[in-house]
Design goal:
With about 240 residues, the protein is of the alpha/beta class. The protein has seven helices and 13 strands.
Length: about 240
């Protein structure tokens, strides 16, 4: 199975840290956050990875090269203009082919057993699945309503206070069948704002995979400090089955 790691963001809210390095190269436990994703993917026997690039792309290329150090085959997709989370995937439609694939937000920190996630998604049989987690303050997140059989029945990106109907949040890890390309326009496109609402409007079956552990988005200096503090208190073991 192939995976797409989204790594094009500028990380403007993390300046001055991101003046000289991309957001996904910020070290957590002594390793770039993107490396944590790659290690977890490799441990689930995923070998082909595509990384989209934009800001300071040479820093990522120089560090990860062809991926052989991690037992991976890494290919890069440079975007002269950022295409958005979904647009970046649409741009790789030919490379991803007709088989199911994973999409991972490279600037989130999480612990996940990708093998379990893939098996769950295949068993459900819909167009795809979204890893989700519980969060108290959801105003800056994509929230979803989960119905019968873990099917997602509503999704709102970054809701206003009066729009909040759930504390289940998009964790930035997706499993998709190739039919997803029919629902992504070939221009700037975002999964939360554009694609997920379109899927639900068209009656497509999209399922939620509930994580027991929290996902840590690296969206601000405060959130980064919280993650660094958390990881000083807890050693990460990627072989742990948390589900």
């Amino acid at each position: 199975m192939k995976a797409v790691l989204l790594a094009a963001g500028k990380g403007t809210r993390l300046k001055p840290i991101t003046d000289n390095i991309p957001k996904v190269m910020i070290p957590i436990n002594g390793k770039p956050i993107l490396e944590h994703h790659l290690r977890q993917l490799a441990q689930s026997e995923i070998r082909e990875v595509y990384i989209n690039l934009h800001y300071l792309s040479e820093k990522i290329r120089e560090y990860f090269k062809d991926g052989k150090k991690w037992g991976l085959d890494i290919q890069y997709s440079h975007e002269p203009e950022i295409l958005g989370t979904a647009g970046a995937v649409k741009n790789l439609e030919k490379e991803l082919g007709k088989d199911p694939f994973l999409v991972v937000y490279g600037d989130n920190f999480l612990e996940i057993n990708y093998g379990h996630f893939i098996r769950y998604s295949e068993k459900k049989g819909g167009i795809g699945a979204v890893a989700v987690f519980k969060k108290e303050d959801v105003r800056g997140s994509g929230i979803l309503d989960i119905g019968y059989d873990q099917r997602i029945i509503n999704f709102v990106e970054k809701p206003k206070l009066e729009e909040i109907f759930s504390h289940w949040v998009n964790g930035g890890v997706f499993y998709f069948k190739s039919q997803i390309f029919d629902f992504i326009e070939k221009k700037y496109s975002d999964f939360g704002y554009d694609v997920f609402p379109r899927l639900l409007k068209n009656g497509m079956k999209l399922y939620a995979y509930k994580l027991k552990n929290e996902v840590y988005p690296i969206d601000s200096i405060d959130l980064l400090d919280q993650l660094i503090k958390r990881n000083k208190e807890k050693a990460v073991d990627y072989h742990t089955d948390s589900f």
